[in-house]
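Please go through this protein, sequence plus C-alpha coordinates, and consider how the sequence yields the C-alpha coordinates. Keep your notes short.
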Amino acid sequence: MTCDEERIRYLILKKLYNSRRWGKGHMLVKRLKSIVPSHLRGEVFQIIKDLVKEWLIVVYGRTKHGLAAHLNIAKKREIEEILFENQNV
Protein backbone atom coordinates (compact mmCIF):
# COMPACT_ATOMS: atom_id res chain seq x y z
CA MET A 1 0.00 0.00 0.00
CA THR A 2 1.43 3.35 -1.01
CA CYS A 3 1.61 6.36 1.26
CA ASP A 4 -1.23 8.06 -0.66
CA GLU A 5 -3.49 5.01 -0.32
CA GLU A 6 -2.75 4.82 3.40
CA ARG A 7 -3.57 8.51 3.77
CA ILE A 8 -6.88 8.15 1.91
CA ARG A 9 -7.79 5.13 4.03
CA TYR A 10 -7.04 7.13 7.18
CA LEU A 11 -9.08 10.14 6.00
CA ILE A 12 -12.12 8.00 5.16
CA LEU A 13 -12.08 6.18 8.49
CA LYS A 14 -11.46 9.43 10.38
CA LYS A 15 -14.39 11.19 8.69
CA LEU A 16 -16.80 8.35 9.44
CA TYR A 17 -15.49 7.99 13.02
CA ASN A 18 -15.67 11.70 13.84
CA SER A 19 -19.16 11.90 12.36
CA ARG A 20 -20.24 8.89 14.47
CA ARG A 21 -21.37 6.88 11.46
CA TRP A 22 -21.92 3.51 13.15
CA GLY A 23 -24.73 1.15 12.20
CA LYS A 24 -27.55 3.02 10.54
CA GLY A 25 -25.78 6.39 10.67
CA HIS A 26 -24.55 6.26 7.09
CA MET A 27 -22.68 8.71 4.85
CA LEU A 28 -22.76 9.03 1.08
CA VAL A 29 -19.68 7.88 -0.82
CA LYS A 30 -19.60 11.14 -2.78
CA ARG A 31 -19.19 13.00 0.54
CA LEU A 32 -16.27 10.74 1.40
CA LYS A 33 -14.70 11.59 -1.95
CA SER A 34 -14.94 15.30 -1.18
CA ILE A 35 -12.63 15.07 1.88
CA VAL A 36 -9.75 13.66 -0.17
CA PRO A 37 -7.40 16.00 -2.08
CA SER A 38 -8.51 16.41 -5.69
CA HIS A 39 -5.46 14.71 -7.22
CA LEU A 40 -6.21 11.51 -5.21
CA ARG A 41 -9.98 11.25 -5.72
CA GLY A 42 -9.72 8.63 -8.45
CA GLU A 43 -8.51 6.05 -5.93
CA VAL A 44 -11.25 6.59 -3.33
CA PHE A 45 -13.75 4.07 -4.65
CA GLN A 46 -11.12 1.29 -4.83
CA ILE A 47 -9.99 1.99 -1.27
CA ILE A 48 -13.60 1.94 -0.05
CA LYS A 49 -13.96 -1.47 -1.74
CA ASP A 50 -10.85 -2.65 0.10
CA LEU A 51 -12.23 -1.40 3.42
CA VAL A 52 -15.48 -3.27 2.72
CA LYS A 53 -13.50 -6.47 2.04
CA GLU A 54 -11.80 -6.02 5.44
CA TRP A 55 -15.25 -5.46 7.06
CA LEU A 56 -14.15 -2.09 8.46
CA ILE A 57 -16.86 -0.37 6.41
CA VAL A 58 -20.27 -1.80 5.64
CA VAL A 59 -22.22 -0.70 2.57
CA TYR A 60 -25.54 0.64 3.78
CA GLY A 61 -27.03 0.48 0.31
CA ARG A 62 -28.35 2.83 -2.29
CA THR A 63 -30.30 5.82 -1.14
CA LYS A 64 -32.10 8.20 -3.45
CA HIS A 65 -28.94 10.33 -3.39
CA GLY A 66 -26.38 7.57 -4.09
CA LEU A 67 -24.37 4.81 -2.46
CA ALA A 68 -23.92 5.07 1.32
CA ALA A 69 -21.65 3.37 3.85
CA HIS A 70 -21.05 3.23 7.62
CA LEU A 71 -18.47 1.84 10.04
CA ASN A 72 -18.75 -1.73 11.29
CA ILE A 73 -19.43 -1.60 15.04
CA ALA A 74 -17.99 -5.10 15.45
CA LYS A 75 -14.58 -3.78 14.28
CA LYS A 76 -14.59 -0.69 16.52
CA ARG A 77 -11.40 -1.62 18.39
CA GLU A 78 -9.52 -2.30 15.14
CA ILE A 79 -10.73 0.98 13.61
CA GLU A 80 -9.64 2.94 16.68
CA GLU A 81 -6.21 1.27 16.57
CA ILE A 82 -5.78 2.32 12.93
CA LEU A 83 -6.85 5.89 13.67
CA PHE A 84 -4.81 6.43 16.82
CA GLU A 85 -1.64 4.73 15.52
CA ASN A 86 -1.63 6.71 12.25
CA GLN A 87 -2.44 10.21 13.51
CA ASN A 88 0.62 11.60 11.74
CA VAL A 89 -0.47 10.45 8.25
